[in-house]
Amino acid sequence: MTKTIRVTILDDHQSIVDGYVYRLNSIPEIEVVATISYGNQIEPTLAEHPTDVLLLDVNVPSEPKNSNPYPILHVIPSLLQKYPNLAVLVISMYAERGLIRAVMEAGASGYILKDDQEIIRSLGSVVISVAGGGIHFSQNAHRLLQKGRPIANSKSLARRQLEALSLCAAFPNSTTAELALKMSVSNSTVRNLLSGAYIKLDVHTRAAAIAKARELGLLAPDTQTIRFNTNPR
Protein backbone atom coordinates (compact mmCIF):
# COMPACT_ATOMS: atom_id res chain seq x y z
CA MET A 1 0.00 0.00 0.00
CA THR A 2 1.34 3.44 -0.97
CA LYS A 3 2.03 5.70 2.01
CA THR A 4 -0.07 8.87 2.09
CA ILE A 5 1.97 12.09 2.00
CA ARG A 6 0.61 14.43 4.68
CA VAL A 7 0.78 18.16 3.87
CA THR A 8 0.36 21.27 6.02
CA ILE A 9 -0.02 24.69 4.34
CA LEU A 10 0.90 28.11 5.77
CA ASP A 11 -0.50 31.04 3.77
CA ASP A 12 -2.65 33.95 4.90
CA HIS A 13 -4.64 34.29 1.65
CA GLN A 14 -7.61 31.94 1.70
CA SER A 15 -8.01 31.90 -2.08
CA ILE A 16 -4.42 30.68 -2.47
CA VAL A 17 -4.88 28.04 0.21
CA ASP A 18 -8.07 26.84 -1.47
CA GLY A 19 -6.20 26.51 -4.77
CA TYR A 20 -3.41 24.45 -3.19
CA VAL A 21 -5.92 22.23 -1.37
CA TYR A 22 -7.89 21.67 -4.58
CA ARG A 23 -4.79 20.61 -6.50
CA LEU A 24 -3.28 18.46 -3.78
CA ASN A 25 -6.38 16.66 -2.52
CA SER A 26 -7.16 15.55 -6.07
CA ILE A 27 -4.09 13.27 -5.89
CA PRO A 28 -4.71 9.96 -4.08
CA GLU A 29 -1.21 9.83 -2.55
CA ILE A 30 -1.58 13.25 -0.87
CA GLU A 31 -3.69 14.46 2.04
CA VAL A 32 -3.78 18.07 3.26
CA VAL A 33 -3.99 17.59 7.03
CA ALA A 34 -3.97 21.27 8.10
CA THR A 35 -4.01 24.85 6.83
CA ILE A 36 -2.87 27.81 8.94
CA SER A 37 -2.63 31.58 8.56
CA TYR A 38 -0.02 32.70 11.13
CA GLY A 39 3.58 31.74 11.80
CA ASN A 40 3.01 31.03 15.48
CA GLN A 41 0.60 28.25 14.51
CA ILE A 42 3.26 26.11 12.83
CA GLU A 43 4.67 24.23 15.82
CA PRO A 44 1.37 23.42 17.58
CA THR A 45 -0.14 22.37 14.24
CA LEU A 46 2.72 19.99 13.42
CA ALA A 47 2.50 18.54 16.94
CA GLU A 48 -1.21 17.87 16.43
CA HIS A 49 -1.06 16.86 12.76
CA PRO A 50 1.99 14.75 11.77
CA THR A 51 3.25 16.23 8.48
CA ASP A 52 5.57 15.04 5.73
CA VAL A 53 5.68 18.23 3.61
CA LEU A 54 5.20 21.77 4.93
CA LEU A 55 4.31 24.46 2.37
CA LEU A 56 5.41 27.89 3.59
CA ASP A 57 4.86 31.44 2.37
CA VAL A 58 7.55 33.84 3.62
CA ASN A 59 5.30 36.89 4.07
CA VAL A 60 2.81 35.54 6.61
CA PRO A 61 2.27 37.54 9.84
CA SER A 62 3.80 36.07 12.98
CA GLU A 63 0.53 36.14 14.92
CA PRO A 64 -2.84 37.95 14.94
CA LYS A 65 -1.47 40.82 17.05
CA ASN A 66 1.95 40.92 15.37
CA SER A 67 1.83 41.69 11.65
CA ASN A 68 5.62 41.40 11.20
CA PRO A 69 6.60 38.43 8.98
CA TYR A 70 7.36 35.34 11.03
CA PRO A 71 11.09 34.50 11.30
CA ILE A 72 11.34 31.88 8.56
CA LEU A 73 15.14 31.70 8.74
CA HIS A 74 14.83 30.65 12.38
CA VAL A 75 11.72 28.52 11.97
CA ILE A 76 13.03 26.20 9.22
CA PRO A 77 16.19 24.91 11.01
CA SER A 78 14.30 24.70 14.29
CA LEU A 79 11.57 22.56 12.73
CA LEU A 80 14.03 20.33 10.88
CA GLN A 81 15.93 19.69 14.09
CA LYS A 82 12.70 18.60 15.78
CA TYR A 83 11.26 16.80 12.73
CA PRO A 84 14.25 15.49 10.72
CA ASN A 85 12.01 13.73 8.18
CA LEU A 86 10.01 16.87 7.40
CA ALA A 87 10.40 18.48 3.96
CA VAL A 88 9.88 22.24 3.75
CA LEU A 89 8.79 23.76 0.43
CA VAL A 90 8.64 27.56 0.22
CA ILE A 91 6.09 29.09 -2.17
CA SER A 92 6.42 32.87 -2.38
CA MET A 93 5.94 35.87 -4.64
CA TYR A 94 9.23 37.28 -3.29
CA ALA A 95 12.02 36.69 -5.84
CA GLU A 96 15.22 37.90 -4.18
CA ARG A 97 18.42 35.90 -4.50
CA GLY A 98 19.63 36.66 -0.98
CA LEU A 99 16.46 35.35 0.65
CA ILE A 100 16.22 32.32 -1.67
CA ARG A 101 19.80 31.38 -0.82
CA ALA A 102 19.24 31.92 2.92
CA VAL A 103 16.06 29.82 2.88
CA MET A 104 17.84 26.97 1.10
CA GLU A 105 20.82 27.17 3.45
CA ALA A 106 18.36 26.98 6.36
CA GLY A 107 17.28 23.57 5.05
CA ALA A 108 14.31 24.08 2.70
CA SER A 109 13.70 21.53 -0.05
CA GLY A 110 12.78 24.10 -2.65
CA TYR A 111 11.66 27.62 -3.51
CA ILE A 112 8.68 28.04 -5.83
CA LEU A 113 7.46 31.41 -7.09
CA LYS A 114 3.73 31.98 -6.99
CA ASP A 115 3.67 33.34 -10.53
CA ASP A 116 5.25 30.15 -11.89
CA GLN A 117 1.99 28.75 -13.21
CA GLU A 118 3.60 25.68 -14.76
CA ILE A 119 4.95 24.43 -11.44
CA ILE A 120 1.84 25.48 -9.50
CA ARG A 121 -0.27 23.40 -11.91
CA SER A 122 1.96 20.40 -11.16
CA LEU A 123 2.21 21.13 -7.43
CA GLY A 124 1.18 17.59 -6.53
CA SER A 125 4.13 16.11 -8.43
CA VAL A 126 6.48 18.58 -6.75
CA VAL A 127 5.17 17.65 -3.29
CA ILE A 128 5.61 13.93 -4.04
CA SER A 129 9.17 14.61 -5.21
CA VAL A 130 10.27 16.65 -2.17
CA ALA A 131 8.62 14.13 0.16
CA GLY A 132 10.98 11.60 -1.39
CA GLY A 133 14.04 13.79 -0.85
CA GLY A 134 13.95 15.84 -4.04
CA ILE A 135 14.76 19.54 -4.46
CA HIS A 136 12.63 21.88 -6.60
CA PHE A 137 13.02 25.46 -7.80
CA SER A 138 11.05 27.70 -10.08
CA GLN A 139 13.16 28.40 -13.15
CA ASN A 140 13.54 32.07 -12.20
CA ALA A 141 14.49 31.20 -8.61
CA HIS A 142 17.15 28.81 -9.90
CA ARG A 143 18.41 31.44 -12.34
CA LEU A 144 18.80 33.95 -9.50
CA LEU A 145 20.78 31.45 -7.44
CA GLN A 146 23.06 30.74 -10.38
CA LYS A 147 24.06 34.39 -10.82
CA GLY A 148 27.75 34.84 -10.16
CA ARG A 149 27.79 38.39 -8.84
CA PRO A 150 27.94 38.86 -5.06
CA ILE A 151 24.90 40.17 -3.22
CA ALA A 152 25.44 43.91 -3.03
CA ASN A 153 26.92 45.12 0.25
CA SER A 154 25.85 42.07 2.23
CA LYS A 155 29.47 40.87 2.65
CA SER A 156 28.21 37.31 3.07
CA LEU A 157 26.19 37.40 6.27
CA ALA A 158 26.38 34.03 8.01
CA ARG A 159 23.26 31.87 8.25
CA ARG A 160 23.02 32.38 12.02
CA GLN A 161 23.38 36.16 11.63
CA LEU A 162 20.47 36.13 9.18
CA GLU A 163 18.52 33.90 11.55
CA ALA A 164 19.04 36.41 14.37
CA LEU A 165 17.97 39.31 12.11
CA SER A 166 14.94 37.31 11.01
CA LEU A 167 13.88 36.98 14.65
CA CYS A 168 14.53 40.69 15.26
CA ALA A 169 12.30 41.58 12.31
CA ALA A 170 9.51 39.33 13.55
CA PHE A 171 9.77 40.45 17.18
CA PRO A 172 11.27 43.98 17.11
CA ASN A 173 10.56 44.65 20.79
CA SER A 174 12.22 41.47 22.07
CA THR A 175 15.16 41.79 24.44
CA THR A 176 18.48 40.08 23.77
CA ALA A 177 17.59 37.54 26.44
CA GLU A 178 14.29 36.74 24.74
CA LEU A 179 16.00 36.32 21.37
CA ALA A 180 18.61 34.08 22.98
CA LEU A 181 15.88 31.88 24.43
CA LYS A 182 14.25 31.50 21.00
CA MET A 183 17.61 30.55 19.45
CA SER A 184 18.62 28.31 22.39
CA VAL A 185 21.92 30.16 22.78
CA SER A 186 23.46 32.54 25.32
CA ASN A 187 22.82 36.27 25.44
CA SER A 188 26.42 36.92 24.46
CA THR A 189 26.06 34.74 21.35
CA VAL A 190 23.08 36.78 20.18
CA ARG A 191 24.95 40.01 20.84
CA ASN A 192 27.93 38.73 18.85
CA LEU A 193 25.74 37.59 15.96
CA LEU A 194 23.97 40.95 15.77
CA SER A 195 27.08 43.06 16.21
CA GLY A 196 28.78 41.08 13.43
CA ALA A 197 25.76 41.65 11.19
CA TYR A 198 25.78 45.38 11.96
CA ILE A 199 29.43 45.61 10.93
CA LYS A 200 28.83 43.78 7.66
CA LEU A 201 25.77 45.87 6.87
CA ASP A 202 27.49 49.12 7.98
CA VAL A 203 24.69 50.08 10.39
CA HIS A 204 24.56 50.86 14.10
CA THR A 205 21.08 49.86 15.30
CA ARG A 206 18.77 46.86 15.15
CA ALA A 207 16.11 48.78 13.20
CA ALA A 208 18.67 49.95 10.65
CA ALA A 209 20.01 46.40 10.26
CA ILE A 210 16.53 45.04 9.58
CA ALA A 211 15.82 47.80 7.06
CA LYS A 212 19.15 47.27 5.28
CA ALA A 213 18.69 43.51 5.14
CA ARG A 214 15.25 43.98 3.61
CA GLU A 215 16.60 46.51 1.14
CA LEU A 216 19.22 43.95 0.04
CA GLY A 217 16.62 41.21 -0.31
CA LEU A 218 18.06 39.14 2.53
CA LEU A 219 14.86 39.17 4.63
CA ALA A 220 11.20 39.05 3.73
CA PRO A 221 9.76 42.56 3.27
CA ASP A 222 7.51 44.18 5.83
CA THR A 223 4.06 42.59 5.68
CA GLN A 224 2.25 45.90 6.19
CA THR A 225 4.12 47.48 3.26
CA ILE A 226 3.16 44.59 1.00
CA ARG A 227 -0.49 44.87 1.99
CA PHE A 228 -0.47 48.62 1.46
CA ASN A 229 0.97 48.29 -2.03
CA THR A 230 -1.12 45.32 -3.15
CA ASN A 231 -4.72 45.36 -4.33
CA PRO A 232 -7.11 43.59 -1.93
CA ARG A 233 -7.74 39.99 -2.83
Write the layout of secondary structure elements.
Layout: E1 5-10, H1 14-25, E2 30-36, H2 42-48, E3 53-56, E4 61-63, E5 66-69, H3 72-82, E6 87-92, H4 97-106, E7 110-113, H5 117-121, H6 123-131, E8 136-137, H7 139-146, H8 159-170, H9 176-183, H10 187-201, H11 206-215, H12 223-229
Parallel strand pairs: 1-2, 1-3, 3-6, 6-7, 7-8
Antiparallel strand pairs: 4-5
Continuous helix count: 12
Largest sheet: 6 strands, parallel
**Number of discrete domains:** 2
Query: How would you describe the shape?
Result: globular
SS class: alpha/beta
Any idea what the radius of gyration is? Answer: 17 Å
Kindly provide the name of the CATH class of the largest domain: Alpha Beta
End-to-end span in angstroms? 41 Å
Number of strand segments = 8
The CATH level-2 architecture of the largest domain is identified as: 3-Layer(aba) Sandwich
CATH topology of the largest domain: Rossmann fold
Any overview of this molecule?
The structure is a single chain. By secondary structure, the chain is an alpha/beta fold. It folds into two domains: about 5-145, Rossmann fold; about 160-230, Winged helix-like DNA-binding domain superfamily/Winged helix DNA-binding domain (Arc Repressor Mutant, subunit A). About 50% of the residues lie in helices and about 15% in strands. It has twelve helices and eight strands. It has helices at about 15-25, 40-50, 70-80, 95-105, 115-120, 125-130, 140-145, 160-170, 175-185, 185-200, 205-215, 225-230, and strands at about 5-10, 30-35, 55, 60-65, 65-70, 85-90, 110-115, 135. The strands form two sheets. It has a six-stranded parallel β-sheet, with helices on both faces. Strand 4 (about 60-65) and strand 5 (about 65-70) form a beta hairpin. It is globular and about 55 Å long. The N and C termini lie far apart (about 40 Å).
